[in-house]
Amino acid sequence: MKKNAFVLAAMLAATPAFANNFPDGNVVVFGPGKRPCAEWTKAKDNRDVVLQNYFTSWATGFVSGIASASKDVNASAMKMRDSYVIDHWIDTYCLQHPKDLVYQAAGEFATKLADEGANQ
User: Fold this and answer.
1) Residue 34 contacts by C-beta under 8 Å, 6 or more apart in sequence?
2) Which of 31, 32, 43, 101 has a CB 3.0–4.6 Å from the CB of 48, allowing a cystine?
3) Is pLDDT of 32 > 80?
């Protein structure tokens, strides 16, 4: 249990760092999370269903992983979320921040969920 609490604290503490502290890529992220938000938006604009699903599946897994590790903090915030909510939120974020990376957008969403869960 103490190990889970440590992992939870570390993930929640690191999540805002995804958005702000790794602009030079000194964080290990695999898959489409390392792609620029502009590519997420381009996949949507071009109606590239395969690429859209690739991005959305990655983002959903990323957010789900954080939520699973921190379920005691934000389980209630996750209950009404699904891949469509995550997808729409990242769509909006990426339109506003095209040079950010997809993992930064997903990290911001996860931070939002953690904050909502902590405030409930």
Assistant:
1) 25, 101, 102, 103
2) 43
3) yes
